[in-house]
């Protein structure tokens, strides 16, 4: 088997995936944006042609939801056109392409966790661009895995967002002693270390197609924040508010929790509950 190339390797998921591959002795090349911009198509074709990977994992994304509304062309370039080009390159190299997608491909009107077969209906530019990337990949190269996930937090934090929700809550809790968090949006909080494990398990099991990989269960952002402070033993007042408290251009789904219904086809179990994963994450020495 040829090496694994991880694009977006400096991000939350990319860094945790590279750590997992190192621990398992899998030969891989971590490529951050500074190493390879996936929108520079000629560079991508040249580098992947030289490395000859058997698997390419695309963790690169433009996922700042508000900025995607302000820069829809950039969102489409990164989240759709770059994926189209990657699919064509992987087809030429006969390499498996693993692509990370999002719960924001759904509109949140179902009222129950979404399964892989549910129809997509994005509400914002970010979700639209991610749906387009999925469609390009399915149309161009059958040797693919699309991993939809939700509410990511990890060791590295998101460079685009200046950390992640857990980091932000801990910082605001220490600085202010109180926070305001929405109650009317629900998600499946997911630790990127667990996601990396689940993603690689699907690869090793020979999975193809679309999979939802999230920590089990769901909660509102308010409940997520309360759990963060409870597990850290911090006395922070968490004020429940609605989404109107934080006006923005992007519409967000009210209930975008995901269910990992296809993992059983591969003999795999869903990831552990989100509360257990969060408690484990917060017990680590590298959490700020």
Strand order of the largest sheet: 2-1-3-4-5-10
Rg result? 18 Å
Low-confidence stretches: none
Main sheet specs: 6 strands, parallel
Structural class: alpha/beta
β content, as a range? 15-25%
| Total of helices | 9
Oligomer: single chain
Query: What's the CATH architecture?
Result: 3-Layer(aba) Sandwich
Topology (elements, then pairings):
Elements (H helix, E strand, L loop, with lengths): L3 E4 L4 H12 L4 E4 L9 H11 L3 E4 L6 H6 L1 H22 L2 E7 L22 H16 L3 E6 L2 E2 L11 H12 L1 E5 L3 E2 L2 E2 H13 L4 E4 L6 E2 H12 L4 E5 L32 H9 L6
Parallel strand pairs: 1-2, 1-3, 3-4, 4-5, 5-10, 6-9, 7-12
Antiparallel strand pairs: 8-11
Keywords:
288 residues, alpha/beta, Rossmann fold, two-stranded parallel sheet
What's the short version?
The protein is α/β, with parallel strands linked by helices and 288 residues long. Helix content is 39%, strand content 16%. Helix 4 (72-93) runs parallel beside helix 5 (125-140) and helix 8 (221-232) crosses helix 9 (274-282).
């Amino acid at each position: 088997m040829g090496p694994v190339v991880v694009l977006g390797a400096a991000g939350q998921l990319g860094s945790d995936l590279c750590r997992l591959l190192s621990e398992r002795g899998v030969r891989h090349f971590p490529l951050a944006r500074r190493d390879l911009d996936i929108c520079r198509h000629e560079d991508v074709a040249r580098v992947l042609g030289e490395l000859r990977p058997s698997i390419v994992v695309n963790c690169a994304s433009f996922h700042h939801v508000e900025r995607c509304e302000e820069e829809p062309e950039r969102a489409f370039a990164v989240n759709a056109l770059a994926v189209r080009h990657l699919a064509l390159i992987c087809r030429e190299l006969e390499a498996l392409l693993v692509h990370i997608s999002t719960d924001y491909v759904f509109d949140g009107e179902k009222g129950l966790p979404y399964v892989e077969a549910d129809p997509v209906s994005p509400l914002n530019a970010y979700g639209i661009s991610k749906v387009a990337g999925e469609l390009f990949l399915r149309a161009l190269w059958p040797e693919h895995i699309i991993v939809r996930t939700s509410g990511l937090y990890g060791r590295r934090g998101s460079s685009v967002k200046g950390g992640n929700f857990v980091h932000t809550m801990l910082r605001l809790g220490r600085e202010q002693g109180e926070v305001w968090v929405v109650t009317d949006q629900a998600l499946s909080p997911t630790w990127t270390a667990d996601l990396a494990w689940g993603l690689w398990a699907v690869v090793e099991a020979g999975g193809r197609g679309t999979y939802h990989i999230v920590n089990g269960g769901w909660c509102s952002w308010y409940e997520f924040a309360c759990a963060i402070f409870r597990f850290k033993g911090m006395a922070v007042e968490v004020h429940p508010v609605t989404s109107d408290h934080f006006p923005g251009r992007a519409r967000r789904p009210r209930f975008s929790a995901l269910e990992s219904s296809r993992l059983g086809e591969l003999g795999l179990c869903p990831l552990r509950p989100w509360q257990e994963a969060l408690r484990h994450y917060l017990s680590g020495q590298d959490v700020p």
